[in-house]
Structures are given as structure tokens and as C-alpha cells.
Design goal:
Thiol Ester Dehydrase, Chain A, alpha+beta, about 150 residues
Length: about 150
């Protein structure tokens, strides 16, 4: 199997909607979903054994959002419990593609669906660089274990 195209099992991260996440009507503000999606990707990377601050300090690299498509399906509200998923749907030499969802825990409803391309870049120049081999090996291990 080619790890560049094999989807892996969805990583899941719990989120509770706080008052600060909502607009005046108590509905999650649309831009807040981007924070939820980012947190899940960060926790996915952490679960693989990589901290973003250490990657910047020790290897001089960052992961940055390059492209995103988002579909708002149903509203989440103040105090809802949500699960944010992150599934690796593809990868290149210097990028990861994710399929993500924000799900409402009480009824399983889909609040948001998103496709996001994350680029690996040099922290100083912000130019694309290859994803470190150690990360690719951890991702390959996750793909094999998830099947």
C-alpha cells in the first residue's frame, strides 16, 4: 500500500463549547471552528510524539495551513460537548492533507466538515521543506496500525 494515499483511522479530540466560543446568540462563531480543527491536528501530532514548539526550536520547521475547504452543516451551541476528528487523507513530500469533522456528542450530528492541506515550512524563510523522516515513519506506523 502506498502511504501517500492510504487514509488512516480518525484521531479524535474532545472539545466543550465555552461562552467565549459563541456569538451573541449562543451559537459557535464560525471562525472558532478553525481553532477546534487546529487543536485536533496539534494533538494528533503530539500523540505521534512530536511537539510543535520543539520542532521549531530543534529543527527550525513549522506546520502551516496552506489550503482549506470548510462546510458548515449544523450549529453547535454553548455548553455542547463536541468531538473533533482528524484523518490523514494524503501526503506529499512537504505537506499533509487532512479530512476533519466536528461532531456533536449528544446526537452525533455533523457541525462542520473540512479538508485542510498543511505545509511543512522552514521557520525562518517560510519556504516549503521536506517533512522529517521521523514524522513520516510515525505516520506510516499509524497507518499500518489503523488498518
Amino acid at each position: 500500500m502506498n502511504p501517500e494515499t492510504v487514509p488512516c483511522a480518525a484521531f479524535r479530540w474532545p472539545v466543550r463549547v465555552y461562552y467565549e466560543d459563541t456569538d451573541a446568540g449562543g451559537v459557535v462563531y464560525h471562525a472558532t471552528y478553525l481553532n477546534f480543527l487546529e487543536r485536533a491536528r496539534t494533538e494528533w501530532l503530539r500523540a505521534l510524539g512530536f511537539e510543535q514548539d520543539r520542532l521549531r526550536e530543534e529543527q527550525g520547521l513549522l506546520f502551516v495551513a496552506r489550503r482549506m475547504g470548510i462546510e458548515f452543516r449544523s450549529a453547535a451551541r454553548f455548553n455542547d460537548r463536541l468531538t473533533v476528528t482528524a484523518s490523514l487523507s494524503g501526503r506529499g513530500r512537504a505537506s499533509f492533507d487532512f479530512a476533519q469533522q466536528v461532531l456533536r456528542d449528544d446526537d452525533g450530528g455533523v457541525c462542520v466538515r473540512a479538508s485542510i492541506n498543511i505545509a511543512c515550512v522552514d521557520a525562518a524563510s517560510l519556504r516549503p521543506v521536506r517533512i522529517p523522516e521521523a514524522i513520516l515513519l510515525a505516520v506510516d506506523s499509524e497507518i499500518v496500525d489503523g488498518l
